[in-house]
Design a protein that fits this description.
This protein is an all-beta fold. It is 3% helix and 58% strand.
Length: 155
């Protein structure tokens, strides 16, 4: 594992996210996670993380929320990843995105759905890309929680 003693004054351990969360209403081997799972960055350095899904079949809609320590990170942007949008129109919603959710944490709540009478996306891919900027020294877990994932029902 990564030890606190490996963090120097000029580098910050920004996050370590070993999350492999099973998604609701989808096959049990489907996972949602943050990639890369850990990173270092200098103060004021920006970097990207992807929220990815693996081994999903016929995904039609998803939503997740994430918390992070605002003393270490500021969220600067969120963009829809190519996975759900490939081959279909989508409706992508950033419902909440703030570095000031409470006294200690930032928060984001994001969702997307395919539009129309189309099948869902299958396989592995990126749902969203989030850009953060390091603002302080320390460690910030990216607490990723799946709100909902829906696969198209077969009739």
């Amino acid at each position: 594992g990564i030890r606190d003693s490996s963090v120097t004054g000029v580098q910050t351990l920004l996050f370590r996210s070993p999350l492999h969360q099973a998604m609701s209403d989808v096959p049990p081997d489907t996972t949602l996670r943050v990639e890369p799972q850990s990173t270092y960055a200098h103060a004021r350095q920006s970097f990207a993380v992807d929220v990815t899904v693996t081994n999903v079949t016929d995904l039609f809609a998803w939503q997740f929320h994430m918390y992070y320590r605002s003393s270490v990170l500021n969220g600067t942007s969120i963009t829809e990843g190519p996975f759900l949008i490939t081959g279909s129109s989508t409706f992508f919603i950033i419902a909440n995105f703030t570095d000031n959710y409470n006294a200690t944490h930032g928060y984001m709540y994001i969702s997307a759905t395919r539009v129309g009478n189309v099948s869902g996306a299958s396989g592995t891919g990126t749902l969203a890309t989030i850009i953060f900027q390091a603002v302080g020294t320390g460690y910030s877990p990216l607490d990723l929680k799946l709100g909902r994932a829906k696969c198209r029902e077969r009739v």
